[in-house]
Amino acid sequence: xxxxxxxxxxxxxxxxxxxxxVAERFVRQGAKVFIAGRRDAGDLAAGxxxxxxxxxxxxxxxxAHVLDVVEEDVGKIHILINNAGMENVGQTLVEQAISELDPxxxxxxxxxxxxxxxxxxxxxxxGSIINTSSLAANIGLPTYGFYAATKAAVLSLTRTAALExxxxxxxxxxxxxxxxxxxxxxxxHPEVKLTxxxxxxxxxxxxxxLLGLYQFLASGASAYISGQAINVDGGVxxxxxxxxxxxxxxxxx
Length: 253
Ligand code: NAP
Known about the structure:
By secondary structure, this protein is α/β, with parallel strands linked by helices.
């Protein structure tokens, strides 16, 4: 069930956090996996049985070249995960310098555009593209303006690409993680306390909490699902839990 065995996956932002956890899972399930990021991740990749590719997703020419090289090496890819991202939150729209919009757009938006522009030519028909967006695309949060806007744009791109690639049976979906413990969200990040309060489950997520969805969307088990965005947030987007209402002790056991 949810098999990725024998498939080839290319994961941007596969050198850390969510992307790395997905890479490890897919390798264990029998996929050939390429992890792409700016750092030299040769040893890291070797340690999990993947192959590292150095790539800045903001550089479209480089992205196209890297995919050429991968196809020459192993043939068409079946799974493309546009997951690389950066977060620059903490200032209001009034405070944040316009120049800080550029890195968010370059990585979070153009990085996904490049994957959607250059990836399909290197993919087998029937493949799966998964874009990592964010819960921030779906709910407002003060000081998350630039980041959230780029992640909302990823949802729009997901729908457009799903329609454009449907004739090839290439599905395009988005995962919208809530707060997940990674290098991007260290324990002292203000969002941790906020989520522990807001989340009906009373905790932030771990990368493990996302793996089932990425695997499902990558596999043939989701063959009729495309253009969708799925929150993985411990129920935060469902509404207000007991903790927020100050009724934690009345929760049904
Ligand atoms: P992370 O551990 O900091 O990983 C970020 C990854 O993105 C790294 O592999 C990094 O690789 C790569 N990356 C960043 N800029 C890049 C660039 N210009 N070119 C290529 N790769 C680049 O953070 P994470 O939490 O796993 O984040 C993964 C994705 O999940 C991001 O899109 C993020 O916005 C999204 N997300 C995270 C959370 C959360 O709470 N953690 C919540 C919602 C959404 P290099 O450093 O090697 O370049």
